[in-house]
Amino acid sequence: MNVIAIVLAATATVNFGVETGKIRPELHSAGFGPQICSCPPAVVEEIRSMGFKASRTHDWALLNPNQRVCDWHHIFPLTHLDAKDPANYVFGPTDYLLKRTREETGHDIFFRLGTSIEHSGPKVHFNTLIPDDFEKAAETFAGTIRHYNRGWANGHEWGIRYWEIWNEPDGVNNMWCLPDGDLGLGDTKESRLADQAKREKRRLELFAKFFVACLKRIKGEFGDSVKVGGPALCSWRPSRPDRIGTEEYFRTLFSACREHGVAPDFISWHYYGNKPAEVLAAIERARKICDEEGFQKCELVLNEWHYKNVSWDTLRSKNPEVQRKVWSGPAAHNGIDSSCFNLALLSKFQTSKLDQAYYYGCKNTGSWGYKNESGEKYKVYYGLRMFGDLVREYPVMCESGGEGGIVTLACKSADGGRKALLVTDYRTGNAELSVEVQGVEPDAECEVLIHDFERDCETVKAKLEGGRLVLPKRDANSAAFLVTF
Fold first, then answer.
1. pLDDT score of 7
2. What local confidence, expressed as pLDDT, does residue 5 receive?
3. Residue 133, CA atoms < 13 Å, CB-side half-sphere
4. Global pTM?
5. Looking at the DSSP assignment, which residues form a beta bridge with residue 421?
6. CA separation for the pair 251, 370 (Å, rounded)
7. Which portions of the chain are predicted below pLDDT 50?
8. Main-chain dihedrals φ then ψ at residue 383, nearest 5 degrees
């Protein structure tokens, strides 16, 4: 039997002669930042090298053990005390951490008001219980903003712009918790689902009141000097009998805001998955909902996103065989598929209706970091650094196109003298990429870096001939190329 080898190829066209806008650095932000301990200059430099615009402070209390940072119960620990008295606040550790972030990494701060996640069980919660007094919680949030922006309580005048109310209140038993748990109770499946539906409705009703109370209090004092919104929903998900969908959640918040004469400056949500089309569809849907509800100026913020191609249980498994599946090979959690997923989305974000995006980095090492516990960098580090270099050096965006799943981003320096092209192949199976390049000399010299399963931003040979650039791959796995002219 004869075997015929077929070389799959994808094509794209870019034109450096047509400018389409400015690169938006705020779409390349993350949760990475310095820690109070174990963060030497080399680690800070690693964080800087990825070129993020801003850092979001969620979960930072979990990354700084034994330190009272960021979360409202650390900043205002004794909730029965007077929230207007500066003596009742503990700002020192958070001051230090934010100062390091601002000065050492150069990042802006996106401050999450509320608490870090609490995986403590269905009925054991301390920090994520629904607050008893919404007005007092709102007052402590105002005190926090006053400290960092107006110098109150021996504070600062840092002008932190974005303040987010809570995180994932639609989560179950970990973020916005009823005292007896969020899961339904009952003797049968039907009764448990019915009870959970009631709990879901009650939790949303309470959060809508909380959200409005905080928004009204903060905007009442600080007005347009700050942007306030939230609530960082878990994902974009449909409704079920026992679960309130994302669209219903946002519409309920908008309705409560209209009723009380306030408007959020942004809405936020999360994505953990491996399908770029799902992310882009959610952005479009979010914009449509805001506009339909009368909040046309409301910004869109995707402030946690990360590649995930297995279930949460599989990802957290301690079984060695399962761990090998999750952490090795091209499809590893932080492997080349993950990195090219990032690059494809970061490129697509630039022409989307999204206003800000924050890659979910938690601890700098480990599952949600950019390197493992031995200090070896994951593939995602090199991809994020590649995009950071692009954002930093090439601020003018040019006409880009692609077919067969190939994503391109063409941009150039402010003076137009230097040009860069990012070509990303995320799981297309192509063995060769071809790009028609316009707006440069047909045989212009170029330098090509490849990021694939075996190589991390290494120089490879490729030539622009007659306006056509062929980018060869070693295999059909995901890969990305950064071409500079």
1. 46
2. 37
3. 12
4. 0.96
5. 410, 483
6. 36
7. 1-7
8. -65, -45
Q: Check: CB of residue 337 under 8 Å from CB of residue 331.
A: yes
Q: Which two tokens stand for residue 339?
A: 């990195």
The enclosing H or E element of 247 equals helix 246-260
CA distance 397 to 386: 16
pLDDT at 169: 98
Residues 207, 359: Cα–Cα separation, whole Å: 25
**DSSP secondary-structure letter at 88?**
G
Q: Are β-strands 227-233 and 432-438 bridged in parallel, bridged antiparallel, or unpaired?
A: unpaired
Residue 9: per-residue pLDDT: 65
Query: 447-451 and 456-460 as β-strands: parallel, antiparallel, unpaired?
Result: antiparallel
Q: Would you state the structure tokens that stand for residue 324, as one six-digit string? A: 């090998």
The answer to whether the CB of 481 falls within 8 A of the CB of 448 is yes
Cα–Cα dist 133/145, whole Å:
19
User: CB burial class (10 A; 0-12, 13-18, 19+) of residue 252?
Assistant: middle
Peptide bond into 231 cis (omega under 30): yes
Q: 135 by DSSP, 3-state: which?
A: helix
Bridge partners of 56?
Answer: 110
Inter-residue contact 353 to 281 (CB < 8 Å): no
Please give the structure tokens belonging to residue 195: 């009870």
Residue type, 117: I
Nearest Cα neighbor of 302 from 360, 342, 247 is 360
Tens-digit pLDDT profile for residues 222-257: 999 999 999 999 999 999 988 999 999 999 999 999
Q: Which of 302, 308, 457, 297 is nearest to 390 (CA)?
A: 457
* CA nearest neighbour of 221 among 115, 150, 154: 150
Question: Which are the contacts of 229, defined by CB distance < 8 A and separation ≥ 6?
Answer: 162, 164, 165, 215, 264, 265, 266, 267, 268, 298, 299, 301
CA of 95: how far to CAs of 60, 147, 313, 362, in Å?
13, 10, 36, 19
